[in-house]
UniProtKB/TrEMBL annotation:
Residues 10-143, 157-290 form the EamA domain. One of its GO terms (cellular component) is membrane. It is a multi-pass membrane protein. This is Putative inner membrane transporter YedA. It comes from Meiothermus luteus. Keywords: Membrane, Transmembrane, Transmembrane helix. The lineage of its organism: Bacteria, Thermotogati, Deinococcota, Deinococci, Thermales.
Length: 301
């Protein structure tokens, strides 16, 4: 374990996860601010990314054929993870800063731990309760100024960004329990493919304008395809193999901080006292959740 924790290659891949996954929130904002409707952006990102992953898996000789039950499970988990988790982010990003979005999504581990405890019908540890309480207090501080003014756009974004991490956490838990015995690249490829088709159907149903994105919007989406869906995903898998999981999961603390800085530096998004106080509490809450999980043996291990 000590050798793995000192792996330079593993640390390099972890830095890729830090930087790229943090910057995806910026790319979301740039895309929807330059002509992309949310669901059309999701369709044009996930379908190409999925096809590239599945072509790579085929080239490597991995099994990619699906049975009916496997296809249903991957379609459901893909819808929860990407269509629900990521699609709601894209809608919310139209109305609020990218750094705020990243901080709200940083609560995902809190919701995942809470849902896991409910599913397994075990009494939550005190640290988990403390983490949930502190994280919720942080969400309250982040949203206090706008919600006190009754801004409808911010209220909609707030509700979507509560539901999004719940969807992602639900999809993650479902994938852990019901995932087919296939390579991770194949599972992720099909999840993104089914989600991408869902994005396409929703975009067509809602009558989104497919010809509106300008070159900057397309560049942001290309960045998400190449770096967000392919490069960072591969680096995450390799980092998990080369480093202790407790180190790899620190991306949950690092990504929102970097995203906040990127939004402030590149998009001039405001960072006030409420934002700083709320973000600090959210990150402390996530830290307490991780600590409680490290002390509780997982029944699925």
């Amino acid at each position: 374990m000590k050798g793995k924790s000192l792996s330079r290659l593993g640390l390099l891949h972890l830095w890729v996860v830090y930087l790229v996954w943090s910057s995806t929130y910026l790319a979301f904002k740039v895309g929807v601010s330059n002509g992309f409707a949310p669901f059309w952006m999701g369709a044009t990102r996930f379908i190409p990314a999925a096809l590239l992953l599945l072509l790579y898996a085929r080239w490597q000789g991995f099994e990619i054929r699906l049975g009916g039950a496997e296809a249903g499970r991957l379609a459901l988990s893909g819808a929860m993870l990407w269509l629900g988790g990521n699609g709601l982010i894209l809608v919310a990003t139209q109305y609020v800063p990218s750094g705020y979005v990243a901080l709200m999504i940083a609560t995902t581990p809190i919701w995942a731990a809470l849902l896991e405890g409910l599913l397994e019908r075990r009494r939550p540890p005190r640290l988990l309760v403390a983490g949930l309480s502190v994280g919720l207090a942080g969400i309250g501080l982040l949203n206090a100024p706008q919600l006190s003014e009754g801004a409808p756009d911010h209220l909609l974004a707030f509700l979507l960004l509560i539901l999004s991490p719940l969807m992602w956490a639900s999809g993650t838990l479902y994938t852990q329990r019901k995932s087919p015995h296939l390579r991770p690249e194949v599972v992720s490829g099909y999840q993104q493919l089914f989600a991408g088709l869902g994005f396409l159907l929703l975009s067509w149903t809602l009558g989104e304008d497919w010809g509106a994105p300008n070159p900057i919007g397309w560049a942001a989406n290309l960045y998400l395809i190449v770096f967000g869906s392919l490069v960072a995903y591969t680096s995450y898998i390799l980092a998990v193999r080369l480093l202790p999981l407790s180190l790899v999961t620190t991306y949950a603390y690092v990504n929102p901080v970097i995203a906040l800085l990127l939004g402030w530096l590149l998009l001039k998004e405001p960072v006030g006292l409420w934002t700083l106080a709320g973000s600090a509490l959210v990150l402390v809450g996530v830290g307490l959740v991780f600590k409680s999980q490290s002390k509780t043996p997982s029944p699925s291990a």
